[in-house]
Amino acid sequence: MKHKFFTLCFLVCLLNLYSSVLGSTTPSVPDLSITAPNPKLAAHVSQICGQACPELERLIGSAPQQIKLVVAGTDREFAQRVDELDGPRWAAGLAVPAKRFILLRSPSQLTDLNTFRSVLIHELTHIYLYQALGRQKKLPLWLEEGLAMHAAKQGGLGLSGIMAKGVLLDQLIPFADLATRFPGKSEEAGLAYAQSFYLISHILDKHGAKSIPRLIRAMIHAKDISGALHQVLGQGLVALEADFTESMNSRFSWLAVLTAAGALWMLVALVAAVGLVARRRDQVRRIKAMVDGDEKDDAREEKNHVQKGTRSSSRQKILAEAGLDKRRDP
Q1: Where does the record place the region Disordered (predicted)?
Q2: Phi, psi values for residue 93, rounded to 5°
Q3: Torsion sign across C-alpha atoms 45, 48, 54, 55
């Protein structure tokens, strides 16, 4: 009896241990403190976090325990709060990772309502990355912004157009120059963000989803990003960048073919030739229609003349029989 009792206790303890381990590895949502202009918007923020936070934990491999979010209802309120944080007034959102704090503009202040969701997830990513690395380590800016954009699904045709232009004009910025800051000019900054997004996509496509949390963990102990990349991906930053550039050239090569001078003139000539043939066919069709129309008109006129003559002679005959025909033979 005593043996069975100890066996039962052991099984209960084992079950509790298994449950705690399972619970710790299951992605969850941090405790959220949300301040918003109205309860409906607060619920909307909570819903987005409920969907995004578990995905961020899977992507990054770590999660904060709590996050404070404030949604400014007016431009004035946002400006006041962002000034207190020493942030840019033009921003749509701002994260202070050390404080687990996010400031957002209200959706009513944004030109596109869908932007609110992507901005919120983007800023959440910064909080999660800080939680994973701590105060002592910091990711290269291209890696952090690329991850934030990837998590927020901030790709699209606009970004691909920027990337295509950078590739075709051979204007890609070395990632070593994007480690601590992005260019100040808007066009170059746009290219920096595009490169960051596409490099993260390149890493995920080639090395799988688990490569990102492994890379972040490696950054904690690695001397630099190149060492962490070599440890996880088997290649340093220089080799990774070379592979990435080759991949981008291949991806956008169809644009290069279309925009090459010789190919462009060939395309113009082909379009002109097709247009000339179509125009010639149209002219022949119109001339044929005109000839057919004239012949039909002549036949119709002759038929009308015959019918008119027939009707006239019949009428004269009837009048003559009635003694009403006043015509006289010459």
Answers
A1: 291-330
A2: -165, 165
A3: negative
pTM equals 0.69
CATH code at 28-136: 3.40.30.160
Closest CA to 193 of 242, 237, 146: 146
Using the 8-state DSSP alphabet, how is residue 82 labeled? H
pLDDT of residue 274: 61
Query: What pLDDT, on a 0 to 100 scale, did the predictor assign at position 136?
Result: 74
Distance (Å, rounded) from C-alpha 165 to C-alpha 112? 25
Taking the alpha carbons at both ends of the chain, their separation in whole angstroms is 151
C-alpha 220/C-alpha 138 separation (Å) is 9
| Per-domain residue ranges of the chain | 28-136, 137-256, 260-321
Cβ 98 vs Cβ 67: under 8 Å:
no
Mark the ranges of the chain whose per-residue pLDDT is less than 50.
2, 4-24, 257, 260-261, 263-264, 306, 318-319, 321-326, 328-330
In this prediction, residue 198 carries a pLDDT of 97
